[in-house]
């Protein structure tokens, strides 16, 4: 198949989901402040290929992101890391003309199976973006629980209070904001705003958390703080993080995948495996060149 071959099918456009999400009771706070939950979920892609219009940007990407681990995705700009991440939780289809082939398996079940609702997938696979994006005029309290309605989760006042506290604790922000939950999200520092966004993601009890360069807009101190938070979350859920910071990949992740694209070929995984191995004893010379800063 050439890079301009027709995609086998177009993903349905976001928002065309026929049924409104049913309201469901609050899921158990699987990763509550009280301790880790039971089984954790893993994620896997098989032969994932993606297009924007006629342009193929990812080619047959197969990767296992193991339950309870932090997997780092690294690679030069434009190689498809963000696209890959957005495919994992069905955000890719929000882009007009976007298409894909292959499978995304959450605990062995394809998130693109017919009848599967995107909103349900996005509740189970949360996302934190490069720039902190809290609702600036909304209180910290309401920011944390702002995802509940969209996820179709109803909760009593007591449950909401508990959720706000446990989510902020897990995000490592509770001690800094517990006495000012009514202040607006926009009043926090950049690093605090990013932890608020992490708390917002955690409030709907995701099984997987995707993070797209979550520290790239932050100073070194805030970056450290977020990295501590990520490390603390590791035993509670499965994390996939895109980073351009090689030190960060080594500090936070157990597994690592190196993506690469050239000007006329789509992004592919060159090498994936234990982080220590990728950084100290990579199998492919291109990996060695990249992790040692010789290109990209
Ligand atoms: N909405 C879009 N429409 C068309 N092409 C897109 C769109 N988003 C991304 N692309 C293209 O897809 C390719 C992969 O982009 P992507 O953003 O996934 O790369 P990336 O690895 O995340 O890069 P960076 O490290 O700079 O964030 C690029 O060639 C990009 O130009
Ligand atoms: Mg990106």
From TrEMBL:
The UniProt record lists the keyword Protease: no
GO-annotated biological processes: phosphate ion transmembrane transport
A single Gene Ontology CC term: membrane
EC number: 3.6.3.27
Keyword Acyltransferase among UniProt keywords: no
Entry keywords, A to Z: ATP-binding, Hydrolase, Nucleotide-binding, Translocase, Transport
Coiled coil segments of this chain: none
UniProt domain ABC transporter: residue ranges: 43-291
GO terms assigned for molecular function: ATP binding; ATP hydrolysis activity; phosphate transmembrane transporter activity
Stated name of the protein: Phosphate ABC transporter ATP-binding protein
């Amino acid at each position: 198949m050439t890079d301009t071959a027709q995609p086998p099918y177009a993903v349905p456009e976001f928002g065309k989901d026929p049924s409104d999400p049913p309201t469901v009771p609050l899921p158990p706070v699987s990763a509550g402040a009280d301790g880790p939950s039971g089984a954790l979920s893993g994620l896997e892609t098989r032969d994932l290929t993606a297009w924007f219009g006629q342009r193929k940007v990812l080619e047959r990407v197969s990767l296992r992101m193991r339950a309870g681990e932090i997997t780092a995705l690294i690679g030069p700009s434009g190689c498809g890391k963000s696209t890959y991440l957005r495919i994992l939780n069905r955000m890719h289809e929000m882009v007009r003309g976007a298409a894909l082939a292959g499978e995304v398996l959450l605990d062995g079940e394809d998130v693109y199976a017919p009848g599967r609702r995107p909103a349900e997938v996005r509740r189970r696979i949360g996302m934190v973006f490069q720039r902190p994006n809290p609702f600036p005029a909304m209180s910290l309290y309401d920011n944390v629980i702002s995802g509940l309605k969209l996820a179709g989760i109803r909760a009593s006042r007591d449950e909401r209070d508990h959720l706000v506290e446990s989510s902020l604790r897990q995000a490592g922000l509770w001690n800094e904001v517990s006495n000012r939950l009514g202040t607006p999200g926009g009043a926090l520092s950049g690093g605090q705003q990013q932890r608020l966004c992490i708390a917002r993601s955690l409030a709907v009890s995701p099984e997987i958390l995707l993070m797209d360069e979550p520290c790239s807009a932050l100073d070194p101190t805030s970056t450290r703080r977020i990295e501590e938070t990520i490390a603390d979350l590791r035993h509670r859920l499965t994390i996939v993080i895109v980073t351009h910071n090689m030190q960060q990949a080594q500090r936070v992740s157990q597994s690592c995948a190196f993506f690469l694209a050239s000007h006329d070929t789509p992004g592919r995984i060159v090498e994936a495996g234990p982080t220590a191995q990728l950084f100290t004893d990579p199998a492919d010379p291109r990996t060695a060149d990249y992790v040692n800063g010789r290109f990209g």
